[in-house]
Amino acid sequence: MQRPVLSAMLSCQGLCLTDKEKYLFSKYNPLGVTLFNRNISTISQVKQLVAEIKSVIGRDDVLIAIDQEGGRVSRLSSLDIGPFASAESLGNVDIKYSKIHAKLISSCLKELGINVNYSPVVDKIYFPQNPVLETRCFSSNKRKIVSRATQMADTYIKQGICPCIKHIPGHFNTIIDPHLNLLKSNKTSKEILKDISYLKAFSSYPLLMTSHIILNNIDKENPTSYSSRIISEIIRGYIGFDGFLISDAIDMHALTGSVEQRAKNCIDAGCDAICYCAGVYDEMEAICQQNTFMSEKTLNRFDKIKNIFNNKPRNENIDVLKDKYFQKLECCLDVKYSYDATEVLHRMQQKRR
Questions:
Q1: Nearest residue to 109 (alpha-carbon basis) of 43, 194, 184
Q2: Contacts of 71 (CB under 8 A, 6+ apart)
């Protein structure tokens, strides 16, 4: 009999699993684990960590995920892989470079044993731009967002990597970082639907991630990840998405309450799984002890993700692709980014413990 799968993407503290993490992962069989800068030192170390996670959990289909967008969100930068351009830079060049971008990153992820990339970002550029999204969005033009993002996502899928389209339904014209505070939008329902009509282009993809935002004129009490109304009427209904829906990180300060209550709120609202990133053992244990396992419907959605892992990319000369990519985007690759919201949040959490 197949073991039930915990509805959670968990995380770990360091470069290898602790004995307590091994026990927890083995006992509760989480959907998968997300890797961050703190988990990455060398190529051989990452390969060993990934193998260890899969061995401890005991499933071939464990999701090993990472935020490797390019630009300011590049978890693999310490491995001397890349560098990779931001979405904004890719939005300003021919679409073929979005495809090359995804092929190059896929090659790196495949080597490491990573099978899910939390990318591409499909939020729109607004003026002024939310600081957490600066350089991470392709364009203010909806057609350009759709063309670049679908090209990138389709390429990941062909390479055997599952893309995670984020953030749904978006951050709109807010200027608050959701890692640190709750976002609220006062747009009318009509304005929201007009703004997000382009997101229908992503309805058939297997994996989407929510944004933590309150849409006051739809559900003024609950952020999207907690809102059964927004999930059922907007994401499942208007956008037409019937794939696997995962919450953005529940340890963000946009959400309140204990982590186990946050996890419960997301699942009760209609998320298929939660994403927990801080790697704090006691918090992960509290999430696990709720024993919230994936339903039959969610497992069917999970099957669509797993099917991607069977895709075999055709052989290409990666060095030739790198040359094309770097020749075109060289001027965009030496940008120094001082702010990575996820890692800033992690450091804040470390100081409090």
A1: 43
A2: 84, 85, 86, 87, 88, 89, 135, 136, 335, 337
DSSP string for 175-217: -S-TTTS-EEE---HHHHHHHTGGGGGGTTSSEEEE--EEETT
Is the pTM higher than 0.90? yes
Give the count of beta carbons closer than 10 Å to the beta carbon of residue 126. Answer: 17
Structure tokens at 298: 């969610």
Model pLDDT, residue 163: 99
The strand pair at 213-215 and 207-210 is best described as unpaired
Query: In which element (H, E) is residue 293 found?
Result: none
Residues 173, 181: Cα–Cα separation, whole Å:
15
Please give the mean pLDDT across all residues of the chain.
Answer: 94
Single-letter residue type at 251: D
pLDDT tens-place string over residues 63-105: 999 999 999 999 998 898 889 999 999 999 999 999 999 999 9
Structure tokens given for 10: 């968990």
Give Cβ neighbours of residue 124 (< 8 Å, ≥ 6 apart): 137, 139, 140, 142, 145, 170, 195
